Structures are given as structure tokens and as C-alpha cells.
Amino acid sequence: MITALAGGVGAARFLTGLIEFVDQEDLVVVVNTGDDVEFFGLHVSPDVDIVTYTLAGLVNDETGWGVRGDTFECLGMLKRFGEVDWFNLGDRDFATSILRTKLLRAGFSLSQISAKVSHDLGLRVKILPMTDDRFSTFVQTPFGVVSFEEYLVKWAAQDVVLGVNFVGMDAARPAVGVVESILASERVILCPSNPIVSIGSILSVAGIRESLRRSGARKVAVSPIVAGAPVKGPADKLLRGLGVEVSAFGVAQLYADFLDVYIIDSMDAAEKGRIEQLGVKVVVVDTLMKNLAVKTALAKAALEA
Ligand code: GDP
Questions:
Q1: Residues 6+ apart with CB under 8 A from 49
Q2: What is the rounded radius of gyration, in angstroms, for the C-alpha atoms of the chain?
Q3: d(CA 166, CA 168)
Q4: Distance 172 CA to ligand 1 centre (A)
Q5: Within a 10 A sphere around the Cβ of 64, how many other Cβ atoms?
Q6: Whose CA is nearest to atom 17 of ligand 1?
Q7: Which residues of 203-230 are buried (b: 16+ CB within 10 A; e: fewer)?
Q8: pLDDT digit string (tens) for 95-146?
Q9: How many CB atoms lie within 10 A of CB 112?
Q10: How far apart are CA 192 and CA 268, in angstroms?
Q11: 289 CA: nearest ligand 1 atom
Q12: Is 66 in the pocket of ligand 1 (CB under 6 A)?
């Protein structure tokens, strides 16, 4: 069994390469829920949906989120009522969130709902939210404190980050199956995802980091930082805000207590020696997932490292 820890788009792209080699039934994907937001009373789980749509072959490849060919009639009608909002949700995406909200109100957990949605979309991969409990990531900027999704979408991640808060962290328990699959896997892969608000939030849920330290699995991470910058998204602002060096090395430091192998991009080959001094083996390959060939080669490296 393989367990992957995942955020949204970067992780989902990597996982499309991974399922070329791993049988879906042997793969558990533990997904960040710190970005979950409430939108018109609906519970939206951006990262869980991105991973699910991508693996089900439904994702809008241009944006990396949402359903390919989706329409935005519902949002358009809301705008006619003067309800201009900052969040974008297509009609089919609305359906997923309507179902999730209905089932949450009927007492089902996020992980039960995720299992139903992925099954109904034809998947056999187990997609597990990191926790079934409330967990919300907030970002502190010079202009105030906002939810991470608001920082990313509404404010286009323009502002300097002064700090990050995981609200609910102290009470959140890992969803059933998360720790069990980390302990039972032969390999745990940290996808190329935001190290603070995607992987960092997963690792902050009580017991998850500890299970990675205890697990006999080979623990492999793919660096989301290439040539001193994120490929996409605000990882640089978040790392800087928390005083972490914006480099493959900086991210390696965050995982060094449990990591066995770290995959870095060819452009960062010069960082190899410094990272190996952290006690982590380094593999150097091309990690920019421009096409399926790179994705599969990267997945193969993560499976063989
Ligand atoms: P989201 O897509 O923004 O929700 O976030 P993720 O948590 O999946 O993380 C995106 C992270 O993945 C960013 O820090 C990117 O730098 C990284 N990333 C995206 N695409 C690639 C890629 O092709 N190669 C590598 N190495 N990292 C990537």
C-alpha cells in the first residue's frame, strides 16, 4: 500500500502520474482540509474536490480546479441578485458541495462523504480528508487576518504573510484510516504541495507527524520549490513569513525529522550536499510536470527512490 499526502493542484497532477503505476486499490490519498470554506451555507472542500475530479478525469485542465466544461449559471444568477462574491464555483461543483452539506447535516463525516463521492465518480482510490473535525487555516497579513482561501482567491496572495494559524488544530483528530494507512504502507509520498498550508496543516493534526516518525514506510517527498521559487502559488510568501528559507533545502528542513528521500529538481542539483547533511537521501530529476511523460517519470522516481 502507498499513502500520499496531498494539497490541491500540484498534488493532483503528481497523482495522475502515480496511478499509472499503482493500482487504485493500493493507494490512499490523505488530503488537506484547512482550505475548506463555507460559501452560501455550503461546505466547500477545495483540495478534496481537486484531487477527486483530477483522478476521476473530470478536472478542468486549464485551471486545475473545477469540472471541465462546467457552466456558471448559478453564480451568474446570484450576481443578478447583487450577491457578488469572491469565490468561483461552477454548477457541477455546486452540486458536489450541496451533497456534501446535505450529508454533513445528516450526520455523515467528511471522510464518509469523500468515499461516496469518489465511488460515485468511478474511483477506487481511497481519498481521505486529513480530519473529519473543523480545521481552518488563517493567514495574518499587514491588512488583517483572513482565511487562506480568501487570501489566495480574493486577495490573489499579494500581501506579505506575517503568520499562519490553524484554527481547530488542538481538537482535530486524524480521520479514521489516516494513521492506520501511514503505519501499514510500504511507502508514504509527500506530493509537491504547499509545505505550510497543505502538507504543514496535515502534519499539524495530532498523531500524524508522530505516525510518520514511527512508520516503517519509506518516506519520500517531492520538493514544491524549484530554483528558489514555487512553481505556482504563494509558498514563497508563506515560507518567508514563517522564517523558512525559500528553497528546496528550506522545505527539506521542515520534513527532516521523518523523511528518508527527498526528490529535488535538476535545477537545484547544487543543493544536494546541503540537504544530505540533514540526514536525508537526495534524488535529482526533472520535476516540472509539463506533460504526462514528466509526471510518470517523477512518479516512477518517487516509487523507486
Ligand atoms: P494548490 O494547488 O495551490 O492548492 O496547492 P498544493 O498544495 O497542491 O501546492 C502547490 C505547490 O505545488 C506549490 O508550492 C507549487 O510550487 C508546487 N508545484 C506545482 N506544480 C509543480 C510542478 O510541476 N513541479 C513541482 N516540483 N512542484 C509543483
A1: 65, 93, 96
A2: 18
A3: 6
A4: 25
A5: 16
A6: 224
A7: bbbeebbebbeebebbbbbbbbbbeeeb
A8: 999 999 999 999 999 999 999 999 999 999 999 999 999 999 999 999 999 9
A9: 16
A10: 15
A11: 23
A12: no
